[in-house]
Design brief:
- The structure is a single chain.
- This protein has 660 residues and is an alpha/beta fold.
- 35% of the residues lie in helices and 15% in strands.
- A hairpin with an 8-residue loop joins strand 6 and strand 7.
- The longest helix is centred in the middle third of the chain and has 29 residues.
- The radius of gyration is 25 Å and the shape is globular.
- The protein starts with 10 loop residues before the first helix and ends with a strand.
- 51% of the residues are buried.
- NADPH dihydro-nicotinamide-adenine-dinucleotide phosphate binds next to helix 10.
């Protein structure tokens, strides 16, 4: 992290900038005190027209109906994995790598195919903003060389299929299916899992109940596309789509062809300016007659630096020795959080690693120089230090706007006033430039948002903007709702030992896990979750490590159970359960790091703050503060979290788990 004296900003400037941050955040919070209630999930929208926006545009019902279902009513499986995106696939692959057979595994997903977020999202311009060498998992095992530094969505989806083929998982998934509940059967040591398969228009839904020994919940973070509740929205006469379910019949082109020919002559509105909009606006601008970008809060945009993979560089500098990919992921996270020791190589060297501030929300950071504040008085100094390190980067981002955008007034409006960690940084070499074109209009509502919709278009700042097509780029339900309860996020009712509900436990005592992977009272359930776990700007690093850990735990427990069975002391099936003492001890370690994340409180609202709830409804009494602290992420960051887990595995006693 840069020291304060490295910034070009004078102290007076710093004070002004921080004041402006605070004013902007306050304005947004006052404008929308209802937090996440300002949104509705598309699935729950008032009218059929908006609910239909959540329909699966890519599913082939006829083909799926003709297939033998991978999961059958009343059948029993060893592993049921909720989610067939990269998360679910990585858990499956790691289990296979640990010695289990693909035949033991079933994946269940509500989408019509594999890929999770990369199944749903197929909007024009879609790329992953994390370097593909770090993001695309299992590159060493598959031998795949990404074509460029930042992969487009189509290449990522191809990689998803490469993984399913390589590990024989192609026919192990049941799609279009929602798992609704799971109940522990203590007698059989199995979970009874109830699910409903949607077989398409005109077909009856299929309700099923299957048994599984292990349940893995890998439902992803951004699962429910949402729209803001805007007065008059139902009256809008033009076409509408949500970016999470792009409708190419309205735009022309296809997932692999960005010639959006049907936009010719059209007035297109894009509502929202998050990471998604930044990627698709330049494509829209190439084809539409007019583009109106409706902005409430600007994103921070850094330059991308896309380039084709150089095979010589690949061989000599990137895939340079076995284990290179995990090493690169870790190096990336250390550099993005500013936690890399001075002199450490910056392998990726892009905007993320230049920003160096993501540790403020992801954990990590140079804790030798910036320790976790141990008492409330130290919190202010901690945030001050984070801001001091971030200010030069923020200044650089503003400078890029000034250098790129011709119209001064537009440039001013495109400048974001919050610390860089508050919203996902975006990267694009065309977005800012787009506003130099006369047919691209920034409609900035200065933090207020859209006034209303009319049959003709949207109204912002009292002015109506007539539109032929409205694109909702309004994101997803915040993954931090319900106190980061993983079951609530995917609407899954888990009933464990003694009839205890997972969500009620979470609600009563707060987060309670060992390693953020399992909770006592819920044997043989493992999950991908943020609470008490680590995160990274490269979420794939979390998934590859968590899945490795969980597969190790299960494989090792099964081995130990086999010897218990030999001497007759084990139960019929392996049962792995976290002890209450171990989960409390892990929880206390997370609580001890909670103050590290204080920098998020002052942020302008976004999904990271539950749309402002973290600030507006910050717990006041000690009990509520303690409960909130329990869901803290691993404050020392993902590299440290992986180290702790690795040492735990190497220690070998499976501390904190009972195996019976
Ligand atoms: P976001 O939640 O980031 O953006 C939603 C946008 O809608 C915001 O700009 C928001 O404004 C705006 N909005 C909401 N309500 C209103 C309103 N009433 N009036 C005006 N504007 C409104 O969603 P995205 O889909 O862009 O991104 C979600 C996440 O998906 C990303 O942060 C990232 O994690 C992931 N993603 C990852 C990518 C990758 O490459 N890895 C690429 C794209 C997305 P405001 O900011 O004021 O709330």
């Amino acid at each position: 992290m840069g020291a304060p004296e490295e910034t070009k900003l004078s102290n007076a400037n710093v004070k002004d900038v921080l004041k402006k941050y605070s004013e902007e955040a306050t304005k947004r919070l006052q404008m929308r005190p209802e937090g996440i209630a300002q949104y509705v999930k598309l699935r729950n929208a008032q009218s059929e027209r908006f609910r239909r926006l959540a329909d699966d545009p890519w599913v082939d019902h006829a083909a799926l109906n003709a297939q033998e279902p991978a999961v059958k009513d009343r059948e029993q499986y060893k592993f049921l994995v909720l989610g067939a995106g990269f998360g679910g696939l990585l858990f499956a692959v790691r289990l296979i790598q640990a010695g289990f057979k693909p035949e033991d595994i079933r994946l269940v997903d509500n989408a019509g195919g594999f890929g999770g977020t990369w199944y749903w999202n197929r909007y024009p311009g879609l790329h992953c903003d994390i370097e593909s060498y770090c993001y695309l998992p299992l590159l060493e095992e598959t031998g795949y060389v990404p074509k460029s530094r930042y992969s487009p969505g189509s290449e990522i989806l191809e990689h998803v299929h490469r993984i399913t083929e390589r590990w024989n998982l192609g026919d192990k998934a049941l799609f279009r299916t929602v798992i609704k509940s799971a109940e522990w059967d203590n007698h059989e040591s199995l979970w009874t899992v109830n699910m409903t398969e949607d077989r398409g228009p005109g077909q009856a839904q299929r309700n099923m109940s299957a048994k599984t020994q292990y349940l893995v919940v890998a439902g992803g973070l951004f699962t429910h596309p949402q729209m803001p509740k805007i007065p008059g929205m139902e009256t809008f006469d033009g076409d509408i789509l949500h970016t999470d379910r792009w409708n190419y019949s309205l735009s022309g082109g296809s997932f692999t062809d960005d010639n959006l020919s049907k936009l010719a002559g059209k007035r297109v509105g894009v509502l929202g300016t998050g990471a998604t909009a930044i990627q698709c606006v330049p494509c829209l601008a190439r084809h539409a007659k007019e583009v109106y970008v409706f902005q409430r809060t600007p994103s921070k945009v850094m330059s991308r630096g896309q380039r084709a993979t150089d095979l010589e560089e690949w061989k000599t500098k990137i895939a340079r020795h076995p284990g290179w990919q995990m090493e690169r992921m870790s190096n990336f996270s250390l550099n993005c959080t500013g936690a890399a020791a001075p002199g450490t190589e910056d392998m990726v060297a892009d905007g993320w690693t230049r920003a160096k501030c993501m540790g403020a929300i992801a954990g990590g950071g140079p804790q030798d120089r910036l320790p976790i504040p141990s008492e409330p008085t130290a919190v202010g100094a901690h945030i001050g230090a984070l801001n001091a390190a971030d200010l030069p980067v923020s200044q650089e981002i503003h400078d890029l706007v000034d250098r790129t955008v011709k119209y001064k007034d537009t440039a001013q409006k495109l400048k974001a006033w919050y610390p860089t960690w508050c919203k996902r940084i975006t990267f694009n070499d065309e977005y800012l430039q787009t506003f130099n074109q006369p047919h691209v209009h920034l409609v900035d509502s200065a933090g207020v948002g859209i006034d209303m919709a009319t049959p003709a278009g949207l109204v912002s700042g009292g002015k109506e903007y007539p539109l032929d097509l409205l694109i909702l780029s309004t994101g997803y339900t915040s993954p931090s709702v319900a106190g980061l309860d993983v079951a609530a996020r995917v609407h899954l009712e888990i009933t464990g030992r003694g009839g205890r509900s997972f969500s009620s436990k979470w609600d009563d005592v707060g987060a309670a896990t060992l390693h953020g992977m399992a909770s006592s009272g819920f044997p043989n359930v493992f999950f991908e979750n943020m609470a008490q776990s680590a995160v990274s700007s490269n979420y794939m690093e979390v998934l590859v490590n968590k899945s490795l850990h969980v597969a190790h735990v299960i494989a090792e427990a099964e081995k130990r159970h086999a010897s218990l069975s030999n001497d007759g002391s084990g139960s019929k099936r392996t049962v792995i359960e976290v002890t209450p003492e171990a989960e409390e001890a892990w929880t206390m370690q997370c609580v001890a790091g909670a103050t590290w994340f204080a920098g998020i409180r002052g942020c302008t609202p976004s999904y990271s703050t539950s749309e402002g709830a973290l600030t507006l409804h910050a717990p006041q009494d000690k009990a509520a503060q303690f409960k909130a602290a329990r869901r803290s992420l691993w404050a020392k960051g993902i590299t440290d979290y992986c180290r702790v887990l690795k040492e735990w595995r190497e220690e070998g006693s499976m501390q904190g788990l009972t195996i019976s």
